[in-house]
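Each lists chain and fold; for instance:
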Amino acid sequence: MRNVRVPSLVAVGALSVLISLLTPTSAPTPSTVSVATEPSPSAARQKPKPKPHWQRCDAKSPAAFQCATLEVPLDYGDPGGRTIDIAISRLRASSAKERRGVLLLNPGGPGQPGLNLPVDPVVALSKDVQRQYDLIGFDPRGVGRSSPVGCGLTGGELDAEHPYTPWTFAKDVRWARTVAAKCRAAAGATLRHLTTRNTARDMDVIRGVLGEKKISYLGFSYGTYLGAVYTQLFPRRTDRFVLDSAADPTGYGRGMFQAMAKRAEPAFARWAEWTARHHATYALGRTPAEVRGTFWGLVARADREPVDYEGTRFTGDIIRAQRDTFSRVRKAAAWVAGLKRAAESGKPPPYGTSGQPASRRPPEPAPGFPSDGDASGTWAVLCADTRASWPRDPERYRSDAIRDRARYPLSGDFASGIKPCAFWQPGSEPRTEVDNSVRALILQNEWDPSTPLAGARAMHRALRGSRMVTVVGGEGHIVNGTNSCADRSATAYLTTGRLPADDLTCRPRDRHP
C-alpha cells in the first residue's frame, strides 16, 4: 500500500485542515435504489434487498468506476419513515477468479466524502489487494452526495481556531452558540441522526445490497472509530479490518482534542532536541533550551507585529496553531528557520522556499452543494456522537483553557476552548462503547499528532482480537505508504487473513523524513 493523504481526526486546527484532499473536482452522479429496512439479522433474512443500479460515475472517470445511490432510513428506529440518500461507488476486483469480497474505504473526518477513493491515485493499494476485492467508496450520511447538510456558515464562522484570551472569550462563546443555532435551524430534524452508529448501519445496508455476507474495510483516522463501531454492532459481518492511525474509542469527543494538545508537548521537546543538534543547518540554537527560546521569542514578536511569510500574516497564535508541524522535525525546523529570517529581515522570502508545504485552500463545493458542507458535516457527526462529553457552562471552558495553556503552552487553550458541541442537541443514541474480540489490524506512527499513540493503544485494548503494528520513530498522521514493514503486514492480512503472530514493531525507512 502507498501513501494516502487524509485529514486528521477533527484536527484542533481550522476546519480547512479537515477538508479532504481526496475529493474529486467534479463529483460523480450516482443513480438511486431504495432500501428502507433496518440492517438487522432478521431483516436481512426476511427482506431481500434490491440490487444497486450501477452506472458510470461521470465522463471523466474510468468506465469501470461505477456509482449508485441507496435510500436508507434517516432513523433506523423508524425504518418506514423518512429516507436519505447514500452515494456509493465501486471498482471491481481485477481478477474474477481470485475475488473474495468487498473492501469498503473511509478517509476519516468525520464529515469527509469518500466516494472517489477507489480510483484516487493516492489510495494505491497493492495489485494483490486489487485482484481480490471490489473497492467500495461512499459518502457518509450528511456528507458530499449523501443528503448533505449545510448550516449556512459564513467565512468567519468556519474558523475553528479560538485561542483563549480574556478579551475574546465572550466572542468565542457567541461563535459556538451561533454555529450550533444555525445548524439546528437549517437541519434540526436531521442532525440528531447523523451519528457514527447510523453510518455503520448504512455500511451494513451497503453490504446487504451488494449481496455480501461480510465486509472488509480500510479506514483512516476517524475512519478507524467508524470501523470499530461497525465491529461492535455487526461482529459476525466483519471480515478483515485495517485501522490506520487509530482514535481512542474511550476518549472520542472533547477528550480527543485535549489528548492532541497533551501529545504536542513531547513532540515539541523532541523537535527542540533534534534542531539543537542541527544548529549548523538551521541556526535556531545550540541547545534545546536555546531552540525553545528562539521559538517563543518568535511567538512574542509576532504578537507585537505579525510576520509575513508564505502568503500568511503570522501572529503568535497562528504560529502556535501549527502545532502538528512539530511531529516532523526537519520540516518544522525549516519552517521555523524561514519564519525567523522573515521576522528579522522584515521582508517575506520567495514563496514556497521554506520547506513547509503551502497552505491548501478547501476544494470548491460542487454546484448545488452547500458551501459549508465539510464544516457542517464535521460538527454534525462529532457533536451528535459526543454531546455528553461537552460541558454546557461556558465558564468551564474558560477555566480549562487557562489551566491547559499553563500545562501545555503550545496548544492547551486551543484544545480546551469552547466548541459548538457545547450547545448541540444530543444525538439519537449514546456513543458506542467498543469492547469486543473481533480480529483487526491497527497501524500507528509513534509521533502521530492527530491520533496519538496512547489512543491507538486504547483502541488495541478495546479490540481484544486485534494486532498492532507500531512504527517506532514514525512521524506524522497516517502510516499507509510511509513504511514498507507496516505495508507488508497490511497487505498480507488483507490477502491471506493472517494477522501477525504478535504485535509488531517497525522502524522508519528514514527516521526523519
Notes: Confidence is low (pLDDT under 50) at residues 1-27, 34-46, 352-363. The radius of gyration is 23 Å. Residues 56 and 295 are 52 Å apart (CA to CA).
